[in-house]
Every structure is written in structure tokens, then in C-alpha cells.
Amino acid sequence: MSQTVDCLTHLSEPTPLLPARIGSFDCRWLPAPAAVSSENWSWQKSDDSSPYFLWVDDVSEVPHLVESLVRGMALLDAEQNLTAAWLVSDHDPWSQLLFQHLPPAWAGLCLSPENPAGVLFRRAACETPDGASSPARTGWGLAAHLISRNLPVAAASANSVSLDQLPADQLPPLTPVTQRRSDTWGRDWLQNHLATLARRATSDPCDQTALEAAVWQCQGDLDLSHRLSQQHEGEGMHQMCDYWHAIMHRREPDYANSKYWFRQLGRHPVFAPLAARADTLLSTAAPAEVAWRRRLLRSGTWDPFAMVDLTQAAAEDATLEPLARRLQALELISAWEQLLRQVRGEEEG
Asked: Can you give the residue ranges of every domain in the chain?
């Protein structure tokens, strides 16, 4: 017997464009509200409503969410404390990398609010007794609101990412351009809540700021990431603010300044895991990339100065950009993992 799932979207096109089924689930499409509160959900709920609802920001993504939806349902059925599950698209490699290596809350916040999200919510989590509301306008926004209330969220992914098959054009750009949009709700929400979320994660002020700088770095907002990382120059365990500072200048691009900050870091714990991942990626390097493999993995470890040189070369030779973007994605993930180890107290000072 099929199960009916309430599906929310802002799509204004005629109903026939909305799929009647997602996998084995029957879909009942409803208009997503402009603001979320307990009152919003009560009028939409009927006797045969599922205890869950799916928010899909982009209906064209639905075919890529089928397996994740099945896994998300199983997660929420098995773990009653979970309030939501991000449904990771099977053709979004950056989201897959983030959710594969980071806790779901931080992985979700690293995604741009404009990134179309598919999130499965437990209805009861949005029907709070105190009537708590959120001006969420997207699935990302409602999930972020649950995270701000310290409610557990999970991630459901269809598969893992193969390092040598990362589609580079779907990974973070080497030199991002901050988009100034008329609807800035998600960016404003992050600015208002991110410091509180970081303080909740750790009492160390350097790591708190590094968490904020890391989120904005993944969002592609170099200016905000820069201003934060500058607050703790030369401070903290392994100077993680300085690491984000060095990456920021490389992406700016200010290659000489980036190398300056990497010199301030010296040998860094990020280099060993990053070198191992890069070695796996470069083991099938094209002939034109072999020389870069020797430079990047000089003396058996990661050479951040060679990465700066590769990024600069890619700006002049587009054939090098896919390699540079893949390596940059691995670097961002490796730096995040190091920071989270510190936050969890898995390293001694």
C-alpha cells in the first residue's frame, strides 16, 4: 500500500507539472507558506496526512531525490528524536561531500540558502506548543530554524562521491562572486544566528570564529569570512582562522597574500589527510596534470604553495580548472574536519 506524503513548494506553475508520485510515495502538493508556525500546519493537516512532509524548493530536483526520500523516511521512522532529514541530491557532488564528511547541521549551513533544497520534516517538530515560528521561505530556511533551536537533523544520501569523478563545474568556484540578491533572508538569518550556533558548539573563542569563517567560506562570501578570520590572527589551536584566511586570499585572488598566510601556518595537521585524498585523486592524473602531482605532493605531504600556483595557472589555462576545483573541494572538507576535531576536543593543545 502506498503512503501519501504532503509536499510543499513555491512553484506557481499549473498542477500537472507536479509529479503525482515520488518513488512509491503518493504526493499531495501544497503551497509553501511565507512564514512557518504551528498555525500554518494545522490547516493543512488532514486525517490521512503523513506524520512527515517534504519541502522541495525545485521540483526539477525530484527525480534526483527518490532514493534519498526512501532513506529519509527510514531514518525518521527509526529515530524518533530526529526532526528533519536533508535529502541529498544524487547529482549534487558538493552537497554529497559536505553531508558525507560533516555533521548534518554544519553541512546544511554550508550550503547557500539559494541552493534548492529537498528536506523531509517531522510535522510535530513544526507544531511546537509555544507556537515558535520562523520566517522561513525555503526548505533550507526551515531546516536552519530547527538547527537554531538545537533540534537534531540528519542527512539521507543516495550514494557516496568518488573522488576521481567529481563533476568540477558543480563544485565551489576558485574565485567566487558574491551574489547580491533582492531576497536576502537566508544570508541575514545566518549573520544573526551563526555566532550563537558557534558558541553552542565550543567555548573556545578562536574555534568559534573559525566555525563562522568556515561557513562563509563555503557559502562563497569571502568578505565576511575574511573579516572573521582576521579577528584571531596567529591564535588558537593550529591557527584555523589563519587557514581560512589563507584560502580566502587565494580565492580573492591575492596569491602573494595567500602564500604569506600559509607561511604563518607552517606544517599543519590538515596537510596529511589532504595529501592522502589528493594522492587518490591524482593517481589517475592526465598527462598534463602529472607535473602538478609532483609539485602538490612534494616530499610526501601537501604543498599549499603549489596549490596557490595551480589556482593561478588555472586562471590562465582553463584546462587546469577542473583539477584545481576538485582539489579545493577536498581542501575545504579536510580543513573542516580538522576544525571539528578540535571543537570535539579530540586533540590536545
From this structure: 3-161, 185-343
